[in-house]
Amino acid sequence: MEGVIDHHLRALLSKLGGIDVCVTEFLRVTHTRLPRRAFSRICPELDSAATTVSGTPVRLQLLGGNPQAMAYNAAKAVEVGARAIDLNFGCPAKSVNNSDGGASLLQSPSRVESIIAAVRAAIPDEIPLSAKIRLGFSDRSSYLDNARAAEAGGAAELAVHARSKVDGYRPPAYWEYIEKIRQQLNIPVIANGDIWTLKEFQRCRQQTGCRAFMFGRSLLARPDIGLQIKAFYTGKNYQPMAWAEIVQLLYRYYCTTCTLYPAKYQGNRIKQWLAYLKLSYPQASDFFQQIKRHRDPQLLDDAFALEIASHKSSSKGNKLNKNQAA
């Protein structure tokens, strides 16, 4: 999720819990040998054993269509601290697809296999290599060819977003294809796409037979979806996060990131996150309307203070001040 889930958000959500593995935004590989700073920029966790502050492993994700360049840069990533590599064959963005990357490569399963094989040969055997695909490019007819290509190339795990590139993000997700892939492959298959609620997770689990699941937009819309799922597996009673808790989580993120951006961009990441949260919390739409034009840090602080205070009685925690949130 380019430009959305950075290391700050990975740290916050992994500390909340329910997440076993994080994957970085993709690092685009063309024909060049990337410098160390390129890897550190996308994955600062490389300096801490490739884990978040709460100890959750982070996989560094690469995207590109040149096998040799992908192989070299994967080896470089391991050299500078990566403990696992993930390859992106799923991004549907036009700018990426027009630059020989992401889902465009699904038009040629042999290229998918050659890229994965080149990376696998370039990195040590003990470094896990995973890949993510969609069900195809212009349609879903090549879903099994690409899945088999990923396994043949040496991927140890395969995440499948249950749509083609042309499908974009339009509902529904075609989970039935994931089940067919899982039956044909000898490596773990990870289900992805349209798992927004615990009930949808249960349906996806039943329909695909998968034992692992990947979350992107839905994790932003429901930050504790992982905790809900783990409670389902263990039979424990879990009360999903109320808006009062979500707004405090937002404030922690704001306090962590507000000094990183010029004044004219203050609050942009919060507003971006609210666009996802409103899919699960109607209060997010109201809060967005309150702050959408705010750029001044004091105005944003005041808006958060008012929102937190107005929901204090329903919160499990106490009102946060800025120092506590940071």
In short:
This protein is α/β, with parallel strands linked by helices and 326 residues long. It contains 15 helices and seven strands. The protein has a seven-stranded parallel beta sheet.
Description:
The chain is an alpha/beta fold and about 325 residues long. It contains 15 helices and 7 strands. Strands 1-2-3-4-5-6-7 form a 7-stranded parallel β-sheet. Helix 5 (about 110-120) packs parallel to helix 6 (about 145-155) and helix 12 (about 270-275) runs antiparallel to helix 13. The model is unreliable at about 315-325 (pLDDT under 50).
Please give a handful of descriptors for the protein shown:
326 residues, alpha/beta, 7-stranded parallel beta sheet, disordered C terminus
Strand arrangement across the biggest beta sheet: 1-2-3-4-5-6-7
Distance between the terminal alpha carbons, to the nearest Å? 24 Å
User: Which H/E pattern describes the elements?
Assistant: HEHEHEHHEHEHEHEHHHHHHH
Helix % is 40-55%
> How would you sum up the major sheet?
7 strands, parallel
Give the rounded overall mean pLDDT.
93
Number of strands: 7
Low-confidence stretches: 315-326
Number of helices: 15
The shape, in one word, is globular
Structural class: alpha/beta
- Radius of gyration using CA atoms only: 20 Å
Roughly what fraction of the amino acids lie in strands? 5-15%
